[in-house]
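Q: Structure tokens for this one, please.
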Amino acid sequence: MKEKPQHLDIDVFLNRLSGDAREAVKLVVKLSDYPNERELLDALGSDPRFREPLRRLLERLPEIPGAPPWLVQFAENQGDPSLVPALVTIWRARRGSMSEQAGQALLKQGDRVALAALAEDAGEVVGLSARLALEALITLDPSHAYDRVRDLLARKPGQTSTLLWLLARSPATLEADPRFIRLAVEGLRSEERSVADAARAVVEGALPPEGKLQLLREVGPAVVSVSQTAEHAEALAWARAELDALIARLPAGGWKRAPAEAAAGIEELEAIVGHVPAAVRAFYERIDGIEIERGKPRDRFIIVALAEVLAAARAWNERYSPRTTARSLVPLFHWPVSPDVATKSGYSGGPPFGFKAPTTEEDPQLDLRDRPTFIGFAKRAGRLGRAVRST
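A: Here is the predicted structure, written as tokens:
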């Protein structure tokens, strides 16, 4: 039975690492055999004595078959400028994940030499490497970044979606140079799905609500809306026709006509929550809530006013900060449509019935027991209107 290696002394480790590069790689790969592996790895990533042997090892790394990419991480942890030339060599060796690790280490290093090496290759790399190179290009010279990016995209239009996804995660860049926002607006018009999706992420995720509202005022919702497609336009036309017919059947006093500021309220909702479904948009363009009395208070038919939806959206935005919080930690917005029975009776009830937003459904299903769509639920008010007029 093969005996497990004993404790490896730090000085012995340092001496062996300073020898032949191939043997050094084999040693590091097999550190898990030693009981003090954690101590050895910590030394490799933080002890200044290891910088020089690490530099020599990195210089040879692209030449060594089977060298694991994660060895580059130790250079990133050391944060030593003297390691930059070796990292640039690995970056330009185009060795897949090994080169990507080197690019991440150079970006984290952050000095001009490291950033310039990444930025210089922005038009030559793809995938994660392209993102790293573009991020370095922007970080290196923020005041001229936009012009350099535009020149690059003119030569390499395939990098557009990569850049836009980067901007979606960098609100500071958008704030520093609003021309990048215009770049995103151009992307929204793209016929390429990847570009349009990335541009949408910039407008909806990286911009604060007030920023998106300003953009909506300047270029119009037809450009910025997340669903300005033929399907959305068709759904909107259908919903408007359905609601115009519904209004003719509603009892007087049972509904309110939408105020002039309704359009601004819908824009704000889209800025905070995301896509406003066609059926809901068409409703609040025309109607500011429905309330029809029928017997007991609990039996009233209600669709809440736009102001109530806005208040809920603002509270959700303030509580969860969806623009700056990891998406996995932010629940979908529960769009209120109609209060539950207890609330209508004047008691402290549960949450209103509604739907989760944002949604791709243009006429979303509500979480009522029979799962009506928004338009289907609103039409019930028309049937109630006929009953009220007949009594």
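A few notes: The chain is about 60% helix and 5% strand. The CA atoms of residues 226 and 275 lie 6 Å apart.
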